[in-house]
C-alpha cells in the first residue's frame, strides 16, 4: 500500500510540473568576470 501511495505522489508531482512553460528553457548564461 505504501508503494502505491509513494508512486501516486510522484505521478502527481510530475503531472503538476510538466505543463510549466519554463521547464524546458535554460536560464540566460552569465558572462564570466575574468577573475580566474
Could you describe the 3D structure shown?
The protein has one helix at 2-17. It is elongated and about 55 Å long. The chain is built from 1 helix and no strands. The longest helix has 16 residues, at 2-17. The model has no long low-confidence stretch (mean pLDDT 84). By secondary structure, it is mostly helical.
Number of strands: 0
User: How would you describe the oligomerization state of the chains in this entry?
Assistant: single chain
**Average pLDDT score:** 84
Based on helices, strands and strand pairing, what is the structural class?
A: mainly alpha
In percent, how helical is the residue content? 40-55%
Low-confidence stretches: none
The topology string of helices and strands comes to H
Q: Compute the separation of the termini in Å.
A: 54 Å
Report the portion of residues in β strands: under 5%
Query: What's the alpha carbon Rg, rounded to whole Å?
Result: 18 Å
Report the sheet with the most strands, covering strand number, pairing sense and barrel closure: none
Count of alpha/pi helices: 1
Shape, please?
A: elongated
Amino acid at each position: 500500500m505504501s508503494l502505491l501511495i509513494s508512486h501516486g505522489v510522484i505521478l502527481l508531482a510530475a503531472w503538476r510540473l510538466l505543463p510549466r512553460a519554463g521547464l524546458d528553457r535554460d536560464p540566460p548564461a552569465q558572462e564570466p568576470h575574468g577573475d580566474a
